[in-house]
Amino acid sequence: MSDFLMPSLGADMEKGVIVEWLIGPGDRVERGDVVVLVETEKGIIEVEVWQDATVESIVVPVGEEVPVGAVIATLAEAERTPPRAAAPAAATTRKSASPSDMRRAIGRAMSRSKREIPHYYLGTTVDMTAGLDWLQRHNAATSITARIIPAALLLKATALAAAAMPEFNGHYDHDQFSPSPTVDLGVAISTRNGGLMAPAIRDCQDQALDDLMAQLSDLVSRARRGRLRESEVAAPTITVTNLGERGVEVGYGVIIPPQVALVCFGKIVDRPAVVDGSVSIRSLMTATLSADHRVSDGHRGAAFLDQIDQYLQKPEEL
Amino acid sequence: MSSDREPRQATYRAAVREAIRQAMLADERVFLIGEDVGRYGGSYAVSKGLLEEFGPNRIIDTPISESGFTGAGLGAALGGMRPIVEIMTCNFSVLALDQVLNTAATWLHMSGGQFNIPVVIRMATGAGLQLAAQHSHSLEGWYAHIPGIKVITPATVADARWMLPTALEDPDPVLIFEHARLYNTEGELPADGAPVDIETARVRRRGHDISLITYGGSLPKTLEAADELAARGVSAEVIDLRSLRPLDTRTILDSVARTHRVVVIDEGWRSGGINAEIITRICAAAFHELAAPPGRVCTEEVPIPYPHHLEEAALPQMLEIVKQAEATVAA
Amino acid sequence: MTTIDAALARHLLREMLRIRRFEEKTIELYQQEKIRGFLHVYIGEEAVAVGVMQALTRDDSILATYREHGHALARGIPMRSVMAEMLGKAEGCSRGRGGSMHIFDAHHRFYGGSAIVGSGLPLAVGLALADSLKQRNAITVVFFGDGAVAEGEFHEAMNLAALWHLPVLFCCENNFYGMGTALHRAQSVTDLPTKARSYGIQAASADGMDVLAVREAAATAVREVRAAARPYFLDLQTYRFRGHSMFDPELYRSRAEVEDWKRRDPIPRFAERMVSTGVLAATDYAEIDSAAMEEVEEAVAFAEAGSLERVEDLSRFVYSETDDEQ
Predict the structure, then answer these.
(1) Is the pLDDT of residue A12 over 80?
(2) A143-167 pLDDT, tens per residue?
(3) Closest residue of A to C26, CA-based?
């Protein structure tokens, strides 16, 4: 068995706070794996393990501060089977919160939202034919790793609209709305054990489409592996839910406090529609807005949705 | 010929020029590099005529790039040459301070003894020409704070001639501070002159009532003050430090042991100047020899002003030295 | 692209892997507080030092930055000597007095190891000046980062080298960040060869993640410098996969960008190419890698068993010693 110590990460580092354990007792780790996130004065740093091993126990729980050199976990060599773990110490945490913990947290947030935020709801149908056509052409000319999915267009369009109409982008706190100078777009991602996270893509309004796509893939994969950082989970200024991938055509979401708006996109479906006086098959998608009536009204909400629609009609400008 | 059969008079400027010239004739590794040392003949005319004699490969004019050419001088020394880097004045040397402090002074120690840097860096220093605050600094005391380099301050014509060759032979960096007001002074070049050491002080005038310790540009006024004191019945001994790093503590203490009173004359600013180091060493080693608290005459702690009367008020003056010496004798 | 034989391929791969494994080990040792102070690792940039070194001879002089372990190893300074230096042991190349940022080796003409950004550039001018005055047929190579381009000394040195026709190879390891500041936030003109050309210096860019590309670019540059006794500027575009130094949460760049560059890791990229073109066997990589790791372990053992310089010797080498002082 060997001790895993709080590492020295800098010349003047004396102590660190455990922010998140990415492993738990019984987990196999390989040399180079990031196993814990440590907070220091400079920020959160990922800490690796330097041997192949099996985790025996977590000694220091999340939230506790310890000096450099203190034992924070114990490891067993990879070949040996670890002894049966004793009942976990009260504050031992797993790779991600247990479903019931997370469900309860979501429940609390949603109850508060419904209690405090006077929601209003608007919906519209967006013609995505132009968007999809453009995507197809763009992707044909790009390598597989750089291809863009429709969700990226939806995020960018929403970000641009939010940047243009600040009453949908910011925080409502203590009876006051503070619009945000940047659009930190929360992207709702479902996690494997029935959980839900909405990490933010910062400065989304300024991101080039392929950068945005790369960040989106990165966030989704890390959220699903339970490797999101605290700093990313905090403080989106507006959230987008893309229920289309779940096969749902329309959804009306609940605003995540202290935000003031949430946009929901449904599944893109091919339907007949009238265009220029004749019927043709178009790719249509619903977009809904749930917004805080203390900050905006239906008139502005309609304009907001219309803006998103307009942006999606000119995908080459996104 | 490199030294004279008979003593002769020369200016400090001519003495420095001769020192450089003879060094270059004797050793082809020696070259001079700095701003306007070639075509212009040197901003203080020290290198006048040398370009014509030695050519552009050995008298190298540089652009206004103090850090660049000082670093280049260090690099050339590392590469086997014996450069004399001329920084026009110590006022501009701070642009090259990084190369002096972080390369010249540190490399030998930091490399575990592998890389010594045999460079000589000469600069003009001092005030009194109404050149105002940015052209009037005396930073030799400041540089003397740094271990790893040597700091010398030739005050006489003979030292201007014969300290340089020793500095060039030194395997480590030597900074030579030439007070701008000394260039025109005249003095005697000894017969059969030869290189002199660069680490000891000299008693320029023997006395028994008080030791006046000084260096560089302040030597002439201190000697004048000693004359005036003599007329007033005080016998003053004048010590010319010649080297600020290393400081010749032995000569200083030897003098204090005989006179029991001391005044330090330093053209640097008072607080934290080299004057403070000298006095501290005296107090630490010879406290019980002292019959009175040590005195000091330094530059007032102001940026040096332009108008003559204010500049004079800021700088150490002969009569101030006399007054301070009399006060210390009377104490 | 010139053909490359198995011996050269093994050599290049070995040199890069030695650096990679060495640097990984230093991180581990740092976290255990066996290496202290600042630690700047070269992970991701190995192809640059290795590629450039191929063009140099033992008579050439080299100056580098505080991120110089890779250069020291690629130059031939024994790994145990560098490791001992990093642990502050007397057996280190600088008697343990310099540590990570001050690797010096006179025998290999390796002039450090400097912690002052840009300070090596004027020194390079001086070394080249000495070579020129002594008519010594050698060149001086100075490595520096894109951050150094902002320093006055960069401009002074470039100008002097061009003005005086000096044989200096200015090797800019452009990893697009000067500590936490991206190049485009530090330079009004980010095309670095443009700056070199404005001083009348020949310049070229190359893919710093491709050891063969670096090797070729360096060979061309060095040929020019030797033939014309004129400076040359190389912009080698690379990326450090880890933070500037150990204590760096990398708030200034996105993970996506880092992951993107990691896909161009010079070591597996080179290995895959050599295997797929039949130059190396599939098993060669593992063999070379395990030899590198063994060498690293041996160097650590050597360093850990090393001694501390006597405190009594603290004042030695402030000034040069004469024979009777030693």
Answers:
(1) no
(2) 777 788 888 999 999 999 999 999 9
(3) A50
Query: Which H or E element spans position A34?
Result: strand A34-40
DSSP string for residues in B113-163: SS-----EEEEEE---SS--GGG----HHHHTT-TTSEEE---SHHHHHHH
Mutate to test the interface with A, among C29, C36, C255 (most CBs of A within 10 A): C255
CB spacing of B115 vs C317 below 8 angstroms: no
CB contacts under 8 A, B 115-154 vs C, are 115-116, 147-148, 150
pTM of the predicted model, to two decimals?
Answer: 0.70
**Using CA atoms, how far apart are residues B121 and B97, in angstroms rounded to an integer?**
12
Residue A222 has pLDDT above 70, yes or no: yes
Residues 65-104 of B with CB under 8 A from C: 65, 67-81, 83, 98-99, 102-103
Structure tokens at A139: 């992707």
**CA–CA separation, B236 and B214 (whole Å):** 13
- Decide: helix, strand or coil at residue C270: helix
Instruction: Identify the contact set of chain C against chain A, taking CB-CB distances under 8 A.
Output: 28, 30-33, 36-38, 245-249, 251, 254-256, 259-260, 263
Beta-strand pair B82-89/B120-125: parallel
Q: Kindly report, residue by residue over C20-42, the tens digit of the pLDDT.
A: 999 999 999 999 999 988 899 99
* Per-residue pLDDT at B7: 93
Q: How high is the mean pLDDT in each 10-residue block of chain C (326 residues)?
A: 84 98 96 92 98 97 98 98 96 94 96 92 98 96 96 96 98 94 91 97 98 98 97 98 88 88 96 93 93 97 95 91 68
The whole-angstrom distance between C319's CA and the closest CA on chain B is 6
Answer whether B108 sits within 8 Å of C160, measured CB to CB. no
Beta strand residue intervals within B134-235, DSSP E: 150-152, 174-179, 186-189, 202-205, 210-214
Q: For residue B76, give Cα distances in angstroms to A10, B122, C13, C156.
A: 36, 16, 36, 16
Measuring CA to CA, which residue among B195, B197, B163 is closest to residue B84?
A: B163
State both tokens at A177.
């709305």
Contacts of B169 in chain C (CB under 8 A): none
- DSSP codes, C79-95: HHHHHHHHTT-TTSTTT
Q: How many contacts, defined by CB atoms under 8 Å, are there between B and C? A: 145
